[in-house]
Amino acid sequence: MKVIAVLSQKGGSGKSTISINIARSLQLRGYNVALIDTDPQASAREWNALSNEDFFPVYGCDKGISEKEIKHLEKVADFLLIDGAPRIEKSMTDAIRLADYILIPLKPSQFDIWACKDSIELVQTRMQIDDKLKSGLVLSQVNKKTNLAKEVIQFIQENFEIPLLQHSTGSRISYAEVLSSGGTVFESQSKEAKEEINQITNEILKELGVENV
Ligand SMILES: Nc1ncnc2c1ncn2[C@@H]1O[C@H](COP(=O)(O)OP(=O)(O)O)[C@@H](O)[C@H]1O
Ligand SMILES: [Mg+2]
Fold it and tell me: Which residues form the signal peptide (predicted)?
């Protein structure tokens, strides 16, 4: 089982949106997928409760991730997505320890970079002792009509060791709409959003050395 943790202490950066959609992208490729929601606000659990379709199991976990749960999931899942909490707390350090790949979403604004600096530094520190751990920053909710992202991209490349993914999510109403109706972008009409999530997933699989199917 490969563990992909989507983390950042900044609320609203797109963790739940990205983890649910990547989980669905992997599921549609034929993988067995599970998702652990570590946020006490429980967005992924709410989404799962709304969903009519049986996509993939969503487990709640507010006080650290239990070893027992992981042992069980290892037997049944090819991929485990961890949807991170907006705080540096036990579930975040557990996720960092368990992860094969850590994805840090951030909105293209300097405020958001400052707000997730501690998460980035925690991941960088872990990478120094775990040389198999892979990670990436992904821009989320990019307004493709403005140049704002360019400055942010340059800042990230100059200041962080974690690589920036080539693909990002655009600011698209379809992301919000589908989640609030219990679906994912793969059930929406938005070809662009599907393409974005598939490309982000491809980049992660490549880093993990998993053959793309
Ligand atoms: N690419 C996107 N385009 C438009 N809205 C988005 C996008 N990604 C997330 N959102 C919206 O932004 C808000 C925060 O996203 P969410 O995934 O809940 O962030 P987090 O889990 O990091 O708190 C939600 O209302 C969500 O619907
Ligand atoms: Mg969330």
Answer: none
Q: What is the per-residue DSSP string for 42-76?
A: -HHHHHHHH-SS--S-EEE-SSS--HHHHHHHHHH
Ligand 1 close to Cβ of residue 47 (< 6 A): no
Distance 128 CA to ligand 1 centre (A): 31
Q: Does 168 contact ligand 1 (Cβ within 6 A)?
A: no
CB within 5 A of ion ligand 2: which residues? Answer: 15-16, 39, 43
Dump pLDDT digits (tens) for 113-160: 999 999 999 999 999 999 999 999 999 999 977 877 888 899 999 999
| Position 213 in a domain | no
Residue ID of nearest Cα to ligand 1 atom 25: 176
Query: Tell me: the pLDDT tens digits for 16-54?
Result: 999 999 999 999 999 999 999 999 999 999 999 999 888
**Angstrom distance (rounded) from CA 213 to CA 210:** 9
pTM, two decimal places: 0.96
172 Cβ closer than 6 Å to some ligand 1 atom = yes
- Overall domain count for the chain: 1
CA of 68 to the centre of ligand 1 (A): 31
pLDDT-derived band at 66, boundaries 50, 70, 90: confident
Find the CATH number of the domain harbouring 98: 3.40.50.300
- Segments forming the whole domain that contains residue 137: 2-208
